[in-house]
Structures
1.
Amino acid sequence: MHQDKMSQWVFGIWTGTVLVFLFAPLFVVAIFSFNASEISVFPIKELTLKWYVQMFNNNAFKEALLNSLIVAGFTVVIATSLGIIAATGIRSYAGRFKGTARALGTMPMMVPRLILGIALLTFYNMLDTDLSLVTVIFGHVVIALPYVVLIVSARLVGFDDSLEEAARDLGAGTFTVLREITLPLLRPAIVGSALMSFTLSFDEVVVTFFTTGTANTLPMMIWSMLRFGMTPEINAVATLTLVVSMVLAFVGEMSIRKAQTKSAAAP
């Protein structure tokens, strides 16, 4: 009993240390975004919101934020739609090759972003395509699509095929079955994968760097600002991006867990 208690204490301390190591830098960035001084050093003598005011008065920031929202929005629509089609198609038509098809669908997750960015740039150059937000969107779709396939496929594990069969027996067409039966049952997974896609796109730097033209996204703006040194305004932009990403990731994780719970509870 005493040994078990000691093990719990050691495990708890180790877990706490890991969490501090992971989140301390993020906490420091958030704290310095409220620092009145232009130099990011402790102790902080005065707190202020002027860097956030300055950030929202910056036209370059507004343009970059709008571009990021546009790219992330289109990425969500395209990646989620294609991912749902791919996941349901694999379940219905892949037969004994389901595992192989699912592995191919999620393979881009395993490819380093640097290699993916180089591959996309080479592909665009081969097609003689001008780099723009459109090329960024398709690059982000490549990143987000495997996550959608994975999340939706996890929900489909416990999917009751008899519901669709019963609907067809009652005269429902394929589109009606999809709209009335399949999509409502997949809703938690769809919401989770859509939020995950938005977060992945909103934060992406490497692939954006290789596929963007003259239009900046928010992560690219932060990257370009870092060339002139770390400033409180960068901390403010980074904190805003961090908060948006964390909120979306949390909501997405809750939706994914809900989908997994439904899958486990299904007969």
Note: Residues 55-265 form a domain with the MetI-like fold fold (CATH 1.10.3720.10).
2.
Amino acid sequence: MTDDDTALVDRFLDMMAAEAGSSRHTIAAYRNDLGAAGLALANGLGRATMPELAQLAPQWSGLAASTLSRRSAALRRFYGFLHEEGLRDDDPSSALARPKQRRPLPRILDNDEVDRMFSAAADRAASGQPEALRNLALLELLYGSGLRASELVTLPRRAVRAGQPFMILQGKGAKERLVPVSSRALEAVQRWLDACPQDSIWLFPGGRTHLSRVRLFQIVRALAADAGLAPDRVSPHVLRHAFATHLLAGGADLRALQTLLGHADIATTQIYTHVDSARLVALVNQRHPLAQARRGQPR
């Protein structure tokens, strides 16, 4: 990118951080997407015309739909910002393709599989070994509170307090929300705190700082293997999905679930209604008398 384009991108990303509250991960993704677009545009980002933007879709035809959608979204926000700030007289982003992207249904675990993971983790924690106590506390907060992996590993030591059935955390986009903490999770965390290094400012220390997301991923897969589940089916995000799906199946309100998960848009939360619908359809196909008759079985 030219120096002028770099200055425009920096100004735009400063706005995204200050006014929109975007996380550093979002800022980094936008910078990469805008940089890729700048390389593909003959006149650069700031001076790009509608015909030039229209040609980006054919150039990016080999990209995954999710990547193309993200890049288009970044460019739309960028040019919208330039137009609002008077840095351009027009907004050429209407020429960008709008790829249709179907949100995939999240992978989930059923209640029995979750129970098996907790049973195996609790058996190991009964030994009193610090690592086993930590792993049980991690599992309780992932499934019991629906935390994101990044939110969990960066919890300060005093985030979970005895007798307090909730905690306040700063989630995606630097937005604060209340998160429920079950009595089981409180007990598991307290047992872990008794064994946790006393000089750590983090609830889950790792090396010189807190536990990494990669290490959390490895721990969760090991817990799945201990429970006799295929490790590649389980991740911290799968446990978050299980938290949401099982709450919804139990009668939770969609708006309440949106708040608990920290979703900015309820459309993101609505994916769980599709998951539950898919479960119900499968149940009908497997259990309904007519389904039995179609397979040649007596009704």
Note: The first helix runs from residue 3 to 18.
3.
Amino acid sequence: MEASVGERFSGLDGVVAVRTRLSDVDGQNGALTIAGYALEDLAGRVTFEEAAHLLWTGRLPDAAEAAALRRDMAALRVIPDVTMTLVREAAARQASPIDVLRMACASLSLDVQRPNDISPDADMTTAKMLVARLPTVLAACLRSASGREPVAPRADLSLAANFLFMLNGEEPDPTSARALDTYWVTVIDHGMNASTFTARVIASTRSDMVSAVTGAIGAMKGPLHGGAPGPVLDMLVDIGSADAAERWVRRELAAGRRIMGFGHRIYRVRDPRAVVLGRVAEEMAGAVLHDRKLFDLARAVEATALRVLEEVKPGRRLQTNVEFYTALVLQSVGLHPTAFVAAFACGRSAGWCAHVIEQHAADHLIRPQSQYVGPRLVRAPR
């Protein structure tokens, strides 16, 4: 019996909702294209600010444009007093970093001169402000939550290096700053995922960019989208040694539990973001941590898990996903797992802004249909 429309398109699976020039996810071949460029040709080769310019304008900046963008965004990093007060209060109440980011993002509209202006110039100005300030919010949140005073941003550092400076109170080593910058480029955009779709739906009503990005952060909070890279570290600690990996993986599968860091809704081969971040994690293990034990264990667990998954779940093609090496990279730059999703949002924010710009230009309301499956002609009680 043929499936109904509602069954075939549950969750809008298989439905093309928008036309975009921003990114393309090829799950069959494990390829991610960002505005015409293969991910591997951008991550680690251009800065996060340059990648943001690519998404916002359709091209990489020349040297003068890149310098101007860095200056513009550096001048916007300081968050307003009302936002800082909110961050301190939320952190004192032990709100999660992603919740603090969402609340603080909404408050930033108070610092926009014309908050309902969705013209191209206004969108570009707001995009620079949001992408510049969300890392400041996250650093202030993490320091406040640990009883430390927030550190004021510096204008002479890159966005990634400045975030680490605000987090730790000292200038980061170049390898750590480059690792975070590469991570943010790697996650800057990824097709029509849940948070991006949320941002576009909000923007399609002619609502403003701050509202759209705030909604996107709310969507990313959910573990089915923002993911759970933190448990990857728990898994590695629990396994402990390469010799114990196969027994651990088989036990988890026999119990019906998921192996964290493997399998993806779209990719049927290795997630290209995992390839990039695997290289970053290896560089961090050798240059910064000077201890390859965790990285070497991760490589061994990855190889074992892939082999056992193929044996136990043949044909499922459960390959390494972005979460696996994200955990190692973000831990190596000094972040606690509770902050991983918020750090992800800081990188994805540039992509959200690009989609809002694109949706505002299209100026078309996103209004899908629903299929009613409830009762009909029920008599109202007398």
Note: The chain has two domains: 31-226+336-362, 230-332.
4.
Amino acid sequence: MLGMGLGLIKDDFKRIFLSPKAILIGLANQIILLPIIGFVLVSIFPLQPEIAIGVMILAACPGGPTSNLIAHLAKGDTALSVSLTALSSLITIITIPFIVNFALENFLDAGQMVQLDPITVIGQILTVTIIPVAIGMIIRNRKPEFADNMNKPVKIGSGVVLALVIVGIIFKEKDNIASYFQQAGLVTLCLNLATMAVGYLTAKLFQLRKGQAISISIESGIQNGTLAIFIAVTLLNNSAYAIAPAVYSLIMFLTGGLVVYLSTKKRA
């Protein structure tokens, strides 16, 4: 999130007034359609409760800094992608605890039931998302050259951290990992493909430019896996809930890479 802040300026938040249709369609896909699609999929697939809850946690965490890079490489509207990531990060501070509690109530038995306190969760997510982004923006405003130089190393470092976290989760859940991957692989792939397709189709339906449609598709299908893992492991204290976000984080890089390849090949 600090790395994302290093690449943000105040104008990124002003675009909601300059291009409201694209922003609103993108946010509708991220905040409304993504959790709905996630819930439909976990209701259709025969999943263990831990996997179903993990998918819903993931569906509550749209966007993420990775989506901006993929949108840029895929020749999408990078400014729109950055704006959607920034705005969705603000909005999901409020929506995450309610979506996660909804998932816990639906997929856990009464004896297993736990519930997140919305005020506590909002405070914790604020600490790990908005505060680092704000620090990054302050650094960029005061030391733009330093921010440009640090942007790439910080993002590479965050990718390394995510990889280490995923390895740690796999090691901790090694006894169940084969079963979890078998269950989570198909449903997370379907979530990724469905959200990207719906994002692109809704953008074209409302006659947005192709670059905007590409960015909305990517923002809809590339989730903040790191935040989802943080919620599962730290807030809910259950690494089994993090399996679906971990699997998804691997899948979305493959599908994101495919989108970049197809987009650049077609333009060439």
Note: The chain has a mean pLDDT of 82.
